[in-house]
Specification:
About 20% of the residues lie in helices and about 30% in strands. The chain is an alpha+beta fold. The chain folds into two domains: about 25-230, no CATH class; about 235-295, no CATH class. Strands 2, 3, 5, 6, 7, 8, 12, 13, 14, 15 and 16 form an eleven-stranded antiparallel β-sheet that branches. Helix 1 (about 1-20) runs parallel beside helix 5 (about 285-295).
């Protein structure tokens, strides 16, 4: 009797979905979950944890030159369903000010250690930083004042994930999707414990290359960093970009499987629930998850 009820449920669910195939691509817009600026300082006592701005580049002029490197982190795993396939990633920042007279390339590089955002705040301009507080990232520390970078000034990947020419006029600048940016975000989704975000680095060989961007704490929402991620949820079993007849057929073919580990890859794809911890079976729990993706 129970098997018959499950078969009826499967048939009704698949019939409902077959009536209207939908695009399998979904879009998530993520606000930064953490950001900070590392200010060059031999003592490692400067930061800007909750300040309204992020800085990168080399300042200088009247004051002595000072390198600045900003860090930014997004909670990918908390906003995108486990098992999804990332297809596109773009990052938007708003430039608020620079004294530079030329455009500069600003690079994204993965940060290789976890780091913190304390309560330091250098204010509306604040290009020199503020006294670091407990848990702040600084030029020397990942978390002030107990944990340290391996390399002074931060530990970053040698691989450039993305780059954008940032001019001298205030406004929005977008780092377009690259294969490496997609790979970074996919890895952060699959292994959130190794998500330490990106650094933004630019020319530090010339004075006044520094740029000021809006941080996640900026009072103007439009000034805050924004990560836009396109992804294919796990319900698109054949990775076609659509949830359609072929996905339904694949799912139906694996219906009632009780040990996906002993079967083919389609069974493991159909075993999509409980989300993040599939149970090795394809049953009504997976059907509900499959239908939920269609309804979205």
């Amino acid at each position: 009797m129970k098997k018959r009820q499950n078969s009826i449920l499967l048939s009704l669910g698949l019939l409902l979905i077959l009536l209207q195939p939908v695009s399998g691509t979904e879009v998530a817009e993520l606000q930064a979950g953490r950001d900070n600026t590392l200010f060059e300082d031999d003592n490692g006592t400067l930061s800007n944890g909750i300040g309204p701005n992020l800085f990168t580049g080399l300042s200088g002029g009247i004051a002595p030159p000072q390198k600045k490197r900003c860090l930014i982190w997004f909670d990918v795993a908390g906003n995108i369903p486990p098992g999804s396939t990332i297809t596109s990633v773009t990052l938007k920042l708003r430039l608020l000010r620079t004294r530079d007279s030329s455009s500069r390339i600003v690079e994204l590089r993965r940060v290789l250690q976890d780091w913190g955002e304390g309560t330091s705040n250098s204010g509306l301009t604040g290009g020199g930083g503020a006294p670091a507080t407990t848990g702040d990232a600084t030029w020397l520390h990942t978390f002030f004042n107990t944990d340290f970078w391996i390399n002074t000034g931060g530990d970053f990947s040698a691989t450039v994930s993305g780059s954008q020419s940032v001019g001298t006029l205030a406004g929005d600048y977008t780092w377009s999707s690259t294969a490496q940016m997609v790979a970074d975000v996919q890895s952060w989704l699959d292994d959130p414990n190794n998500n330490f975000g990106w650094s933004l680095l630019t020319d530090e060989s010339l004075i006044q290359t520094a740029r000021r961007f809006g941080s996640r704490e900026n009072s103007t929402v439009a000034n805050r960093p924004l990560l836009t991620v396109e992804y294919i949820p796990i319900a698109d079993l054949d990775d076609s970009g659509f949830i359609n007849f072929f996905d339904h057929a694949l799912f139906a073919n694996e219906w009632s499987a009780t040990d996906c580990s002993a079967l083919n890859g389609w069974c493991n794809r159909a075993d999509m629930a409980p989300v993040g911890n599939p149970d090795g079976r394809v049953d009504h729990i997976d059907l509900r998850e499959f239908a939920l993706h269609w309804l979205q």
